[in-house]
Amino acid sequence: MMAETSCYRVDCYGMRQIYHAGGFGRLIYSEGEYYHYSSTPVDSYKGWRIGMPPLWYPTHSTAYYIGVTGKRFTSVSCVGISAGFDAYKPGANRYDNHFTDEVALFETSEGGSSRMLMCKGIQGLIVERGRVFGERGWMDDTEYHGAMKDIPDITRPSLPPGMPAGGHGGSHGHLSNEFITSILEDRQPLVNIFEALAMTVPGVVAHQSALKNGEKLKIPQYG
């Protein structure tokens, strides 16, 4: 499950319920944004974060399409930007990466487009958020705008007694609950191996595109 939190945020949960109830129809466009200003490196186990290509860590963003629809990204064109931080200068990191920010435009398997980004260079901004825009409606945060009148309940289910909601928009408790109950119920969790690949591999390919000046690249599919 990658401990990926965005799928369990209150807005992403609501978008997923409305999408599967038909309230958006086909998504024409969607956005996922992960901003984490880091002018100095954020420490990590064996320093894995230091200098890492931004869209190698895409899931806080890509969850706002994959985690809403269960559909896939099929191709990508990406632009990489450098904010000039020391950890991204030539020879300063193990990845030989100088991009602090990457903005990708994906094609989707339902014939739409999706802009996903991970940016470390925007002064002071640390947030994860997304929006979805479909043929029958759209959603920004938790408010639905569209043609569907009988809107499903988009309130996240209550957590078991004594389990705190935790951080990342109260997603920690819901992620933990899904992990535990999927084992007890002998079922696949929301983020299984295929959804994890679908949220992660597109970011790896997006970075390859950025290294090739935005060349459009196909994304492999794994189920």
Give the SSE layout.
Blueprint: H1 10-20, E1 27-36, H2 59-69, E2 73-81, E3 101-108, E4 113-119, E5 126-134, E6 137-140, E7 143-146, H3 167-184, H4 193-211, E8 217-218
Parallel strand pairs: 1-4
Antiparallel strand pairs: 1-5, 2-3, 2-8, 3-4, 5-6, 6-7
Would you kindly provide a written description of the structure presented here, covering whatever features stand out?
The chain has about 220 residues and is α+β, with helices and mostly antiparallel strands. About 25% of the residues lie in helices and about 25% in strands. The protein is built from four helices and eight strands. It has helices at about 10-20, 60-70, 165-185, 195-210, and strands at about 25-35, 75-80, 100-110, 115-120, 125-135, 135-140, 145, 215-220. The chain has an eight-stranded mixed beta sheet, with helices on one face. The longest helix is centred in the C-terminal third of the chain and has 19 residues, at about 195-210. The two termini are about 15 Å apart.
